[in-house]
Amino acid sequence: MISYVSTRGGISPVAFDEAVLSGFAADGGLYVPETIPKISTAQLQAWATLSFVDLAFEILSLFIPRSIIPDDDLKKIIAESYSSFEHPDVVGMVPLDKQGNVIVMELFHGPTLSFKDVAMGFLINVLDYLLEKRDERLTLVLATTGDTGPAAAWAAAGKPTLDCWALFPRGMITEEQERQMTTLNASNVHPVGVENCTDGGDDLDFVVASLFKDQELKEKLKLSSVNSINWCRVMVQSVHYFYGYYRTVEAVGDDVVFSVPSGAFGNLFGGYLARSMGLPVKQFICANNINHTLHTVLSSGVLAKKELIQTISSAIDIVVPYNFWRYLYFSAGSDSGRLAAWMDEFEETGRMEFNSETLAIIQHGFASIAITDAQTKATIKNTFEQDGYLLDPHTAVAVAAANAFKESLPDRTKFLCLATAHPAKFPEVIRNCLDSDTGLPGQAMHTSLDDASTVCQHLRLCDIENLEFALVDAMTTNLQSH
């Protein structure tokens, strides 16, 4: 049976349910499987025509023991998790150019119009399933830079086993994203708008991590997290790489390049996981905005925290990519001592530099680039005018990155650009990019967002300076009411 260990190596291996229910490992590390399952060539061929839901079952059952979630229950959880998606195939595939070499993989057809729905609904349903069997309740606390919060809030709404506390940096996400959390009318969902977050979501991540470091407090408040620190999130995100690959190639074994808008490295880690399992990916492009921590480390070997800069691709405005530690763990040959030393050095100094040997390992199969706001805007405008397709500002980062690398790769190389959000979530950005003083195009609208704009909001407000104390107080009061 597959077991899960901490990247820091300070705790004994645990089962899947313990890893998922805990979120963070008790030693401050991130949970990963002791070994990554390998897919045979025969399996890869056999899965090529499966639907997204059936493919998800085949992949996820490799990580989830039947003794914890039997096959029939797992199939029901998967089916329920994608039943509310608008696209009949869950994921849409849209070629941008006439040659069909640049393809947008639409991951935003879920209930909150973001790729976070692809994994979040499943994770929340798994938590609810496990907690119901145990007759227990959890308090979920998460930080969001735009899309994670709405996805978690929507998936958790009404779940009798969960309370969901979604923290967001006030004024640094769109009103549409905020209202997706604050208009749910669910008594177990608690959006918290946090003021004065100089480093945006990174400030919130620091507070969340501090809560989890206090084991006594974690037990008292029954804390867990559904940010992509939770193993289940990144595990599920491997599925869309398999699905996108199969829908792009003519034959299994053909080359595909994935261009991924990147902030915390969670989505990219899902791709790395798929490749490690055996998916024949030619290359990943790590597409950063000008908060380019990942581009810097992948290109130069220097991992350094810098001051956050607000951009129009706000969901990837991240300067501490915490899922990169998972990638570094496997890059270091699963050497937890080495990884822990790296983490400690970074926490103490805010900087570390890898030697040339380690850098070569980290760079294997990865390219990276930083895309400016001006390039993002131009990509949105040009793609809409030339191809009639409207990109959101995060997908535009991925498309701009793919365009930048096209000349350096063979002419028939397929570029699969991950579309992580619906453009309707960013109306002011779209209006500005299209130089439109009048109405927005139909692709920039969605009825669910229109509906949310007309109803009351339910919101807690707090300053970042008082956030930890205020959260503990509010969560304690809430638990006492149950």
Strand residue content: 5-15%
CATH class of the largest domain: Alpha Beta
Question: How many whole angstroms does the radius of gyration measure?
Answer: 21 Å
Largest sheet composition: 6 strands, mixed
Count of alpha/pi helices: 21
Task: Extract low-pLDDT stretches.
Answer: none
Distance between the termini: 36 Å
Percentage of helical residues? 40-55%
For the biggest β-sheet, the strand order reads 3-4-14-9-10-13
CATH architecture of the largest domain: 3-Layer(aba) Sandwich
Task: Give the class from helix and strand content and strand pairing.
Answer: alpha/beta
Number of strands: 15
User: What does the average pLDDT come to?
Assistant: 95
Shape: globular
* Oligomeric organization of the protein chains: single chain
CATH topology of the largest domain: Rossmann fold
Number of domains: 2
Overview of the structural elements:
With 482 residues, the chain is of the alpha/beta class. It folds into two domains: 4-35 and 52-83 and 114-232 and 455-480, Rossmann fold (3-Layer(aba) Sandwich), CATH 3.40.50.1100; 92-106 and 237-444, Rossmann fold. 43% of the residues lie in helices and 15% in strands. It contains 21 helices and 15 strands. The protein is globular and about 60 Å long. The model has no long low-confidence stretch (mean pLDDT 95).
Give me some keywords for this one:
482 residues, alpha/beta, Rossmann fold, 2 domains, 6-stranded mixed sheet, 5-stranded parallel sheet, 21 helices, 15 strands, 15% strand
Structure summary:
The chain is an alpha/beta fold and 482 residues long.
